[in-house]
Amino acid sequence: MSDLTEVTGMVISAMPVGEFDRRIVLLTKERGKISAFAKGARRPKSPLMGITRAFVFGKFWLYEGRTSYTVHQAEISNYFESLITDLDAVCYGYYFAELAEYYARENLDASEMINLLYVALRALEKNQMPKELIRYAYEMRLISMNGECPDFFTCAECREEGKKLRIYSAGKEAVYCVHCIQQHSVPTDGVTLQESTFYAIQYMITAPLQKLFGFTVSTEVLYELRLVLGRLRAVTFDKVMKSEEMLHTPDMDHT
Q1: pTM here?
Q2: Does residue 116 lie in a domain region?
Q3: Residue 72, Cβ neighbours under 10 Å: how many?
Q4: What residue numbers bound the domain in which 1 lies?
Q5: Could you give the angle at the alpha carbon of 164 between the alpha carbons of 161 and 170, nearest 5°?
Q6: What DSSP character marks residue 154?
Q7: Are residues 25 and 95 in the same domain?
């Protein structure tokens, strides 16, 4: 048997294998996304049962094989118990985890992604911010973190930063200022947004992680964020997230 490998991370998905085993996907700080088998984890009274379900976070000790790992034991620091007792929150949690699994890669440092997922799940638990808004902040930050976010700070036509921005174009993946709109130098697919919506988007991209889920917006801004993130998902994600169907938010993805 190989030596034990210690990693810090979170279980982002789990599925049954055979009669008593379980296969998990771990998002780890040290080795990115890895798969591991937990032998006998579904047997009654197995010590691996509680530590190999979705959202548990802590240290894991694994035996490394040629193509996967085997779970030996874990020291869990957060089970997110209040999250899994709230049906709406857990649906969002599964969606956030699926997005993390979509972006994560093996053997690449995932510290930033784990930290984002962790604070997003904590925000769902606290229930002090609309879950729909938590979703948009998480999506925007994750897309930005992976280098796929349009420049929401600079007009794509005049290239000046700090001007009053007004239109977002999904087709051009760009934003445009009031002056360029008046000059008719913008794409026809643009969506007109309030200044407050641009401020909210910019905050989602730049805010310190511990403050990312600590703001509110008006109903009108939330609606516009729904439009923007729907279009941004359509041009960024090349697959449909299965867990998205469970979310109780208006479907604006293809408007």
Answers
A1: 0.92
A2: no
A3: 17
A4: 1-108
A5: 80
A6: B
A7: yes
